Amino acid sequence: MKIRLLKLFDAVVRRILLSVIPLPEKSKGLPATLVSVLIIRPGGIGDAVLLAPMIEYIRKYFTAIQITVLAEKRNAGVFSLIQGVDKLLCYDRPGEFLQLVGPLTKVPKSPLPPGGGGLGWGGDCHEISQSHFHPPPNPLPSREGESITNGFARGSVSSHYDVVIDTEQWHGLSAVVSRFVSAPIKIGFDTNGRRRMFTDLVPYSHDDYEAESFIHLIKPLGIEAEFVEMEAPYLSVPDDAASKVCGLLEPFHNAPFVAIFPGASIKERRWGADNFRQVAKMLSAFGVRIVVLGGKEDREQGEIITGGGLGLNLAGLTTLSETAAVIQKSSLLLSGDSGILHIAVGLNIPTVSLFGPGRSKKWAPRGDRHIVLNKELSCSPCTKFGNTPPCPIKVKCMRDISADEVVNAVTILLTTVGAMPSHCCKRDWIEVAD
Fold it and tell me: Which of 33, 71, 171, 261 could form a disulfide with 340 if both were Cys (CB 3.0 to 4.6 A apart)?
């Protein structure tokens, strides 16, 4: 409901505010030295995860730059997994939102623990886990003569940046924020009326993998880069999360297991607990152990999938960083089109993913370690800029994916990574998205 109301409010912003707010001053080019950048990332978990390669490139090219991320409470936990972020704020915390466009102001400490937040998978919108700080070579002097670390007085928010990068693709609120944050360079995607809020526009294509789209946003900074399939993980799990998960997985005694995430941000992307249970039954016949992951809202589905001793249901019992730690220890993740899927990819864990309404060209994992099941119906994909219309054929694109296909895909990858002996499975039995 909150997300729906936010989208409604955003529609008003796009139609009214974006047309009347004065244009920013034209960019005079890059300053000689870039000291600070604000990256705006509203939305869900998946978009936030796919920012990691872009952040890595910024840190590589500007080693001493101070990186602040403005996120939402619902995706803030992701940034405990991304190294190189110095400060994390949330624009749905009114105090922080106002401080971005005002003078340097003290920020109260968040009650949430750093590194992943509570069971709702949010996160601490102030300090990133200390193990993920990227300290600059030397402290920088503030305008008031104070010594500041990571570009900020402790507990403070800067009201001025050298660059603002708005990574939102369509909605208008973040573009308005970009316009009013003090920065000579404001970079954003060239979509709808939001283009008026930026000094530097970047084309956006539905055919580009989203991590690649985000990397295009740093081209105005003089960074010529492209997304490449990385063998090394670009996410990392905090030590405290990894330690806790060792205890949760103790019943398995370090035996290989498949992680299943049955959730999704919208009902049209859900394959259904009964279908996942069929998969769990067939995999158990091969001796494959199952762990179900998810938030509190996925707990009931987890009970259906693992009932009768088919596996371990951790849905609703782990923070986002702890969920990542479970995935890191798994042999494979089975998921629909979800943010959790992107976490597995960022940790270099093999995946089997189920796509229907979503755009596989933009969101599906790349590479031989990932199998994408997609029926490619004539009406699919139907989602555009995060909006999925009502389906007149009861989401046939998801219903037509069979448990047999899924099990075959899972066993192919498990055999490939050596987590199970070879069984009767063939890659040409399934449809793999390009």
Answer: 261
Domain, as residue range, for 394: 239-429
Tell me, yes or no, whether 308 and 351 share the same domain: yes
Residues 41 and 158 in one domain: yes
Amino acid in position 341:
L
| Residue where a domain stops, chosen among 221, 255, 287 | 221
Whether residue 192 is found in the same domain as residue 330: no
Residues 253 and 331 sit within 8 Å (Cβ to Cβ): no
Query: Rounded mean pLDDT of 305-311?
Result: 96
Phi/psi for 261 (5° steps) reads -115, 110
Question: For residue range 323-382, what is the model confidence (pLDDT) as tens digits?
Answer: 999 999 999 999 999 999 999 999 999 999 999 898 899 999 999 999 999 998 888 888
The span from the CA of 320 to the CA of 108, in Å, is 23
Nearest of 175, 81, 164 to residue 128 by alpha carbon: 81
pTM: 0.85
Closest CA to 294 of 308, 284, 305: 305
Copy the structure tokens of residue 393. Answer: 């054929």
Is pLDDT of 114 > 80?
no
